[in-house]
Amino acid sequence: MDKNKANTVLNSKLDAVTIALKKSIKNLDSYTHVRGESVYVDDINIRQGTFHAVVFDAPKAHGRIKHIDYSKAEALNGVERIFTYKDIPGKNEIGGIIPDEPLFAEHEVHFWGMPIALIVAESEFIARKARQLITIDIEELPVITTAKEAKAKGSFINAPRSFSLGDTEKAFKNCEYIFEGETFSNGQEHLYIETQGAYAEPQENGNIKVTSSTQGPTSVQKTIAQVLGVAMHKIEVDVTRLGGGFGGKEDQATPWAVMAALASFHLKQSVKIILNRHDDLRMTGKRHPYESTYKIGLSKDLKILAYQTEFLQNSGASADLSPAIAERTLFHATNSYYIPNVTTKVLSCKTNLPTNTAFRGFGGPQGMFVIESAIAKAAHEIGVSASQIQETNLLEENNTFSYGQIAKKVEAKNSWNSAKSIFNIEALEREIHSYNKTHINFKKGLALMPITFGISFTNTPMNHARALVHIYLDGSVGISTAAVEMGQGVNTKMMQIAADVFSIPIEKIKIETTNTTRVANTSPSAASSTADLNGKATLIACNALLERLKIVASEALETSKESIVLKDGFVYHNSEKPKLTWTDLINKAMLNRVALTENAHYATPDIHFDKSTEKGHPFAYHVYGTAIITTTVDCTRGTYEFDSVKIVHDYGKSMSEGIDLGQVEGALIQGIGWMTMEEIAYNDEGKLLSNALSTYKVPDIFSAPKRVEVIPLETDGHDLAILKSKAVGEPPLMYGIGAYFALQNAIKAFNPNYDLEFHAPMTPEKVLMSLYKNP
Ligand code: MTE
Ligand code: HPA
Ligand code: MOS
């Protein structure tokens, strides 16, 4: 074979590998998932003598504890011990950002479902039985359930935050149109299939190993150490995978792990705690409901000149991640639009609901719902379509966000225009128009939803990760990072990176459990940044090993390091026939006493944010896209279907197309669920009414859009994205916001007197009432 031909063969081989690695890859977890072999906390083989724990929680939303009688529960056969705040050797404190959250209530309860004690017994059944034997006397205090009430009473988590750009007050004076209004978006239950849980095992010398279903193993480790009053190195936290997290396990997986560790610490025995669905629904926080007011001002030619909002976040009983979530609401308050004069303010309102927490989008969706509502209102009043206003105000290159970052590599218009042309929006609109003309009892509606989402933890110091890569004697590879697999496919992406760098089959790579002893001081797997941060660290580690191996190869083959290429499990020197296999090379490295382990660190460069001026460059990059959503409403019943969702999404250069498509589809449907059918309800006493899956409806296959098409936007990707493959976990959730406005447009087609209301979710009941409502 001549040299050129050899090169061609080699290159086509390389292409084949690249395609195998980057495109057609399946989520490698799917093999164990479909066989029922994937291991969750509840599947661990537990030690003989393991105790089981159940939480005793507050049966009132706010009050003073006068008396608790544990005697009957303690006397029950099989009950080992009941733990309360009095048994805490360290601090009764689990708050991450603000220390305002006890593990167990002491003298007051602040929400219905607040943990008071832990019942530890021989079996979960006995512990549950014991729970029914506890009596509690609570002197009730006034209950706040809404953010507005909290604001009126001055009940806040922290000081308000405000971003501003330009001179909003002055700009309103130059507006042709000004509209004001109110919006409400409700909470959302995470409904991870695997409920919260943990398993703690005592080790020698008072050390404890905890297996937790957490997105943040380091927070679990740190909090256990704090509550037990021991050093962090005594606590090892291990995570195999989660049966879903969706943000609900970023902070709120911690208390259960701490409780299991506390009981294990005292009893010197293993302790397991798995919340059942009812307990999980009642005791854990959800997406934050927001009550907001807006004022929007436009010029005659529909340019938004000024925008002002006040967001009231219903934080629940303590801070948890609320301050960071409130901040992200401000970051995304103008969605994909450039508005030169902006004043946004957010108040984290303390109420007597379970502490609300991270949920896919992390406050961004709540902010984006308000600007889309303001645009819909303006369009309705002016008598134009919302898409005209949306299109007129899309972000452009070098526009400034209200937080000071200059928009670069902006794909807002590109995705918008691509969606409109690829999916032939004019034809769609014509179709809908003629359908509505010829149908009396059914109406269709369409809405466009552009998205712009910033990638990075908004708290700059959190944007770092490490990877520990071992190459074993036989050429197999083990990788440890902080990435937690929760269904998003990050483990597969990590494997792809290593397989790509070493050019070896994916079967040779193993992703180890996420473990605080192997990779320490980590950020949670969140902010859609897990693959970027941990992937970049993995890339650095693998490349360092590769360089080392190339030196070994060049010495063995007596050639220069530069001429060595590793491809498909072989070592090539120029384009000649391979002389060494990957395994030969590893053996040689061992004989030469070369380290086959690398630990690498990555920190996102060039990001910063100054909270004193509320300006900076907090995001590595933004993700863009546009969705077109159409719906058909049954105007006799108020029920509806989503006919199609057509999306042009900015994946950058996707490294795993199947996984990324799964993320877009899943997030979209989760977003539609939030906006339409998922209705969290508490009564005025703060009791959760939607406390089971019979009263809390999430989208199923029947309510999923009939057709979902996702076209990747052709772009270069971004250097700060792993292998130019942009973060994909959260952004597409916000396409679901379009569902609200598609429904609203269908209602308008039926009821011309409908006065727009912005009160999500748009349940069939609400649709029905709107169809027949006259102002
Ligand atoms: N996808 C699945 N299947 N399960 C999940 O729990 N969580 C979402 C998203 N996609 C989640 C998911 C959330 S809230 C985030 S922040 C990202 O995944 C986290 O993973 P990433 O950083 O790897 O995108
Ligand atoms: N996103 C998700 N989780 C977080 C963030 C964020 O921006 N900041 C802190 N935790
Ligand atoms: Mo996702 S809400 O950042 O866990």
Q: What does the model show?
A:
- This protein is α+β, with helices and mostly antiparallel strands.
- Among the domains are: 1-38 and 406-459 and 613-775, Aldehyde oxidase/xanthine dehydrogenase, molybdopterin binding domain (Aldehyde Oxidoreductase, domain 4), CATH 3.30.365; 464-603, Aldehyde Oxidoreductase, domain 4 (2-Layer Sandwich), CATH 3.30.365.
- Helices cover 30% and strands 24% of the residues.
- The chain is built from 20 helices and 29 strands.
- An 8-stranded mixed β-sheet has the order 3-5-1-12-9-10-11-20, sandwiched between helices. It has a 5-stranded mixed β-sheet with strand order 7-15-14-13-8. Strands 16-27-28-29 form a 4-stranded mixed β-sheet, sandwiched between helices.
- A hairpin with a 5-residue loop joins strand 9 and strand 10 (208-212).
- The longest helix has 27 residues, at 530-556.
- The chain is globular, with a radius of gyration of 28 Å.
- It starts with a helix and ends with a helix.
- 54% of the residues are buried.
- Residues 1-20 have low confidence and may be disordered.
- Hypoxanthine (HPA) binds at residues 250, 321, 324, 328, 358, 362, 457-459, 462, 526-527.
- InterPro entries: Ald_Oxase/Xan_DH_a/b, Ald_Oxase/Xan_DH_a/b_sf, Ald_Oxase/xanthine_DH-like, AldOxase/xan_DH_MoCoBD1, AldOxase/xan_DH_MoCoBD2, AldOxase/xan_DH_Mopterin-bd_sf.
- Keywords: Molybdenum, Oxidoreductase.
- It holds the Pfam family MoCoBD_2.
- This is Xanthine dehydrogenase molybdopterin binding subunit.
- Residues 35-142 form the Aldehyde oxidase/xanthine dehydrogenase a/b hammerhead domain.
